[in-house]
TrEMBL record:
The chain crosses the membrane at residues 652-676. It comes from Mytilus galloprovincialis. GO terms for biological process: innate immune response; toll-like receptor signaling pathway. It comes from the Eukaryota. This is TIR domain-containing protein. GO terms for cellular component: plasma membrane.
C-alpha cells in the first residue's frame, strides 16, 4: 500500500516539474499554463527560458516577457502555419543560421526589447533568409551598433528599429522593394545626428518616423531622394530647434509629402520663436495635407509664411504655443484648411514634465540657446520689428473682432485649454463652412454674442469655462447647431430666469444638449419649448429637485439624464410628459440614478408609474429609495415595491376616498350621458341663443323670409361637383340663391356660428353625401344642425335633402342619417346624360317650393 502511495506521489511531482520547467526537450504540456484560443497561444510572463513545443496548427504564438536567451536551430521546423510570433521583452542574445527555419509563412515578428547585437558582432543576412513572407519586423530597443543586414527579407513592408548615432540603413535595407514604413522613434537621451547618407539608396519609403531621438542635426539632402515619402515625423527632438528645419523642408519639395510633423523641436523653457518664411518656402511646391507644429514656443509667424503653404493643406495643428496678435492672422483667410487646432495657447508647463534629459546637457544646447536669442531679440532689426508688431497689435485688439476672417474650407476649429479669459462679445464671421468649434477649458465667463455668420456650425463645445451668463441672442447666428456642450459651467445662475425660453429659441435643429455640472436648481417650463428635434438631454450632477420643463413635444427624444440630482420623485405632470414622448420614441431611456428617491404614501403614484411604464431606466439595479422609517430599499423591482407600499398605505381614509370617488364618477357618468344624448339639441340651442343675442342685421328679420333658397353642405373634396354643376344648375338655370360656405360665410366669424346662421337663413339644406362627407367633422356638424333646425324651428318640417354622389353601403351610414334614407328623403345622382336632366329639374322644383 505504501509503495502505491509513493508511486502516485512521484507521478504527481513529476507532472508538476514537467509543467513548470521550460527546456528544449519539454513536451506539449509546457503550454498548459498558457492561454489558449483558436489557433493562438499566449505564454507571456511564464518565466520560460527556452521556446516550448506547441501545436503545428498554431497561427499566433506570444512568448513576451519571459527569460528566453536564444532561438535554437530548427525549433520552428514544421510550423509553416505560424503567422505571428512575439518574442519581445526577453533576453535574446543569440541567433543561429536556422533560428527561423520553418517560418515560411510568418507575417509578423516582434523582437523588441532584447539583447541582440550585444556582442558587437554583425548578424549575417543568411540568418533571415527563411522569412520569405515576413511583412512586419520589430527590432526596436536591442543593442545593435551595426544594424543587421535584412536585405533577404524581400517581402518586408514595415520595420521598427532603434537609431544610434552613425548608424546607416542603405546597405542593410538594399533591395527591399516593398519597404514603405520605417519607424525609428525612441526615447533615447544619446545625442544623434542624421547625415545625408543615413538613408542612402532607400527610395521606397512612404512613412518615416525619427521622433524623440535627441537629434541635434539633420543634414541637407537627407530626404531629397525619397520621392515617394508621404509622412515624416521629426517631433520631440528638443535639441534640434528650428536650426535644422530649413534643411528638412528644402528636401520635402522633392518628395510626395502629405503629412509633416515637427512638434516640440524647441525646449519648454527656451526663448519664444518666430516661424520664418524661409522654412516654409519649399513647402509651396508640395502637396502637403496636414502639418503639425505644436509645442514650439512660437510667438509670431513671419508675414507671408502662412501664404506659402500649398493649396492642398487641410489640417493645421499649432496648439500649445505662445501666439500673439500679428499680421499673420489675416493670412489664414487664404488657406484651404478644413481643420485648425490652436488649443493650449499660453499653457504653463510643470518643470518636472520636461522631456529632455537634464543630465545630458552639452555645448550644443548652449549654442542653440544663443542661436534662439540672436534670432529673436539679438539684433536691432528684430527689436525694431517687434516694436512695430506690438504697435500694430495695440490697434488690432480694439478692431480685430469686427469681422473674423476664416479659411474658406475650414470645417473644424480647436481652441481649447488656452486660459483665455474674457466675455465673448458680438462676433461676425466671414463666409465659411465651419462645422465644429471647440472652445472648452478656457474662461469665457459670459456669452454675450451674438455669433453671426456660423450657419454651417453643427457642434459647439463651450464646456469647462466658468460661464455664468448667456444672453438671449447669443445663438442667433448659429441656427443649425445639432450638438451643444455646456457642461461644467455656472449656468445655474441664469437658466432658471429664462421663463420664456429665449436663450435656446434659435436652436431649431438641436439634437444633443449637455448641461451637466452647472449647479442648476430648476429649469423653467418653456426652457426648451422651441426645440422639437432634440434626441439627448444631459442634466446630471446638478441640484434639480423636480423635472418641471416641457418635453412632450420632443418626438425624437431617446435619452434623458437627470442622475445625481436632488429628485425625490417625479410628479404626475412629469410622468405624463415622459409617457407622451414614449408614444413616439419607443426606445426612450431615463437615467434617475444617484437621486434621493423616497418611497412614501404621498408619492406612491410615482412607484406605480415606474412599475407599469415601458420606458427604460438606465442602471435600474443600482436605484434605491428611502421608506418612511428611513430604511433604504432597492428599486430594482418596482412592482414588488408597489405591493409593499400599497399594504403600508392602505387605511379607511383610502376606502372613504374610493367611495367618494365612485359617487363622483357615477354623477359625472350620468351627467355626461345626458349631455351626450342631447348634445346636438344643446349645441343648436346654444348657437341660436348666441345669434339672437348678437342680433345681426340679416338674422331673424322675419321668420317667414329667407336669404337663401338652399344651404349646400359638402366636403372640400367634392367642391368641383358643387361649384361646377350644382350651383350652375340651381342658381343660373333655376334662378335660386344657394349658400356655400367657401363663398358666402362671413370672414372672421366663428365657423360653427356661420353654419348655424346659414342654415337658419336658408329655406332648405342640401347635403352632398359621399365617403368624404361622412368622414368630415364639419359636414356632420352641418347635417345635425340642419336636423335640429327642422325639429325645433320649423315645426318638424323636413328641410334636409340628401344627394348621394356615390354608392355607400347601408351598414356604414350613421343611424341618424339612416333614418332619413329609410324615409326616402334622399336622391342618388345618376351621372348620365338623360338622367342628369331629370335630376336637375326635379331638384330645382323641390328647392323652389
Amino acid at each position: 500500500m505504501l509503495s502505491i502511495y509513493s508511486l502516485t506521489l512521484w507521478l504527481v511531482l513529476s507532472t508538476i516539474c514537467l509543467d513548470t520547467t521550460s527546456g528544449a526537450g519539454n513536451s506539449k504540456r509546457n503550454t498548459r499554463l498558457c492561454t489558449h484560443k483558436k489557433f493562438q497561444i499566449d505564454c507571456s510572463g511564464r518565466n520560460f527560458t527556452h521556446i516550448p513545443t506547441f501545436p503545428y496548427s498554431t497561427k499566433t504564438l506570444i512568448l513576451a516577457r519571459n527569460m528566453i536567451e536564444s532561438i535554437q536551430g530548427g525549433i520552428f521546423s514544421g510550423h509553416s502555419e505560424l503567422e505571428d510570433l512575439d518574442l519581445s521583452h526577453n533576453v535574446l542574445a543569440i541567433l543561429v543560421p536556422n533560428s527561423f527555419k520553418g517560418l515560411d509563412n510568418l507575417l509578423r515578428l516582434n523582437l523588441q526589447y532584447n539583447q541582440l547585437g550585444n556582442d558587437n558582432k554583425e548578424i549575417p543576412k543568411v540568418y533571415f533568409k527563411h522569412l520569405k513572407k515576413l511583412r512586419h519586423l520589430n527590432l526596436r530597443n536591442n543593442s545593435f551598433t551595426i544594424f543587421p543586414d535584412i536585405s533577404l527579407v524581400h517581402s518586408l513592408v514595415i520595420l521598427n528599429a532603434t537609431f544610434t548615432n552613425g548608424m546607416t540603413f542603405g546597405q542593410q535595407l538594399k533591395g527591399l522593394k516593398f519597404l514603405t514604413d520605417l519607424d525609428l522613434s525612441s526615447s533615447s537621451c544619446q545625442l544623434k545626428e542624421i547625415e545625408n547618407n543615413t538613408f542612402a539608396g532607400i527610395k521606397t519609403l512612404r512613412y518615416l518616423d525619427v521622433s524623440n531621438n535627441s537629434l541635434y542635426s539633420i543634414w541637407k539632402g537627407t530626404f531629397a531622394h525619397m520621392q515617394q515619402l508621404e509622412f515624416l515625423d521629426i517631433s520631440y527632438n528638443t535639441r534640434l530647434g528650428f536650426r535644422g528645419l530649413g534643411n528638412v523642408t528644402n528636401d520635402l519639395s522633392n518628395t510626395s509629402i502629405e503629412i509633416f510633423k515637427f512638434q516640440k523641436l524647441v525646449p519648454t523653457f527656451s526663448m519664444n520663436q518666430i516661424l520664418k518664411m524661409a522654412d516654409f518656402a519649399p513647402l509651396r511646391h508640395t502637396k502637403l495635407r496636414e502639418i503639425y507644429v505644436d509645442s514650439n514656443r512660437i510667438q509670431l509667424i513671419e508675414t507671408g509664411a502662412i501664404s506659402l503653404l500649398p493649396k492642398t493643406i487641410q489640417k493645421i495643428s499649432i496648439g500649445d504655443n505662445q501666439l500673439s496678435y500679428g499680421l499673420y492672422m489675416f493670412e489664414f483667410r487664404q488657406l484651404s484648411a478644413e481643420i485648425i487646432n490652436v488649443s493650449n495657447t499660453g499653457m504653463s508647463h510643470y518643470p518636472g514634465n520636461e522631456d529632455f534629459c537634464m543630465s545630458d546637457m552639452k555645448e550644443t544646447d548652449v549654442e542653440q540657446t544663443l542661436y534662439e536669442y540672436k534670432n529673436v531679440v539679438g539684433t536691432h532689426q528684430v527689436s525694431t520689428r517687434s516694436k512695430r508688431i506690438r504697435i500694430y497689435n495695440a490697434g488690432l485688439k480694439i478692431n480685430y473682432f469686427n469681422t473674423i476672417n476664416l479659411p474658406k474650407k475650414l470645417t473644424v476649429l480647436y481652441y481649447t485649454a488656452s486660459s483665455t479669459k474674457f466675455e465673448i462679445p458680438r462676433l461676425r464671421f466671414s463666409y465659411n463652412v465651419l462645422e465644429k468649434v471647440d472652445f472648452s477649458f478656457n474662461v469665457f465667463y459670459s456669452l454675450k454674442g451674438p455669433l453671426l455668420g456660423l450657419y454651417n456650425l453643427h457642434e459647439l463645445n463651450l464646456s469647462n469655462n466658468f460661464c455664468s451668463n448667456i444672453s438671449n441672442d447669443f445663438f442667433e447666428g448659429t441656427p443649425n447647431i445639432k450638438t451643444l456642450l455646456l457642461q461644467n459651467n455656472l449656468l445655474g445662475f441664469v437658466l432658471p430666469n429664462d421663463e420664456k425660453g429665449d436663450i435656446f429659441k434659435h436652436l431649431r435643429r438641436l439634437e444633443i444638449i449637455d448641461l451637466s455640472d452647472n449647479r442648476i436648481p430648476k429649469l423653467p417650463f418653456l426652457i426648451l419649448e422651441t426645440v422639437h428635434t432634440i434626441k439627448e438631454i444631459h442634466l446630471k450632477r446638478n441640484v434639480l429637485e423636480s423635472m418641471q420643463f416641457k418635453i412632450d413635444h420632443m418626438r425624437k427624444l431617446t435619452f434623458l439624464d437627470i442622475s445625481n440630482n436632488m429628485i425625490r420623485f417625479l410628479d404626475n405632470d412629469a410622468t405624463a410628459n415622459l409617457e407622451t414622448v414614449a408614444k413616439y420614441s419607443t426606445n426612450l431611456t431615463v437615467d434617475l440614478s444617484e437621486n434621493p428617491i423616497q418611497c412614501m404614501c404621498s408619492n406612491i403614484n410615482f412607484i406605480r408609474w415606474m412599475a407599469a411604464t415601458e420606458i427604460r431606466f438606465k442602471g435600474l439595479k443600482s436605484y434605491s429609495c428611502q421608506l418612511s422609517n428611513l430604511t433604504k430599499i432597492s428599486l430594482a423591482h418596482p412592482k414588488d415595491l408597489e405591493q409593499l407600499l400599497e399594504k403600508e398605505c392602505s387605511s379607511y381614509i383610502g376606502l372613504i376616498l374610493g367611495i367618494c370617488s365612485a359617487l363622483v364618477l357615477s354623477v359625472v357618468t350620468v351627467t355626461t350621458g345626458i349631455i351626450y344624448r342631447y348634445r346636438w339639441k344643446l349645441r343648436y340651442l346654444y348657437f341660436m341663443a348666441k345669434l339672437k343675442y348678437k342680433k345681426t342685421p340679416s338674422t331673424f328679420k322675419n321668420d317667414l323670409s329667407y336669404d337663401f333658397d338652399a344651404f349646400v353642405s359638402y366636403a372640400d373634396e367634392d367642391q368641383n361637383f358643387v361649384h361646377e354643376k350644382f350651383i350652375n344648375h340651381v342658381e343660373r338655370d333655376g334662378e335660386l340663391r344657394v349658400c356655400a360656405h367657401k363663398r358666402d360665410f362671413l370672414v372672421g366669424k366663428d365657423i360653427a356660428a356661420n353654419i348655424t346662421d346659414a342654415i337658419h337663413r336658408s329655406r332648405k339644406t342640401v347635403c352632398i353625401i359621399s365617403n368624404n362627407f361622412l368622414n368630415s367633422y364639419w359636414c356632420m356638424f352641418e347635417f345635425n344642425m340642419a336636423r335640429m333646425e327642422s325639429i325645433y324651428s320649423r315645426d318638424g318640417e323636413n328641410i334636409v335633402y340628401l344627394i348621394f354622389l356615390e354608392q355607400i353601403p347601408t351598414k356604414t351610414l350613421p343611424l341618424i342619417l339612416l333614418e332619413l334614407v329609410q324615409s326616402k328623403s334622399y336622391i342618388e345622382f345618376p351621372n348620365d346624360e338623360y338622367g342628369d336632366t331629370v335630376f336637375w329639374e326635379n331638384l330645382k322644383q323641390e328647392l323652389s317650393t
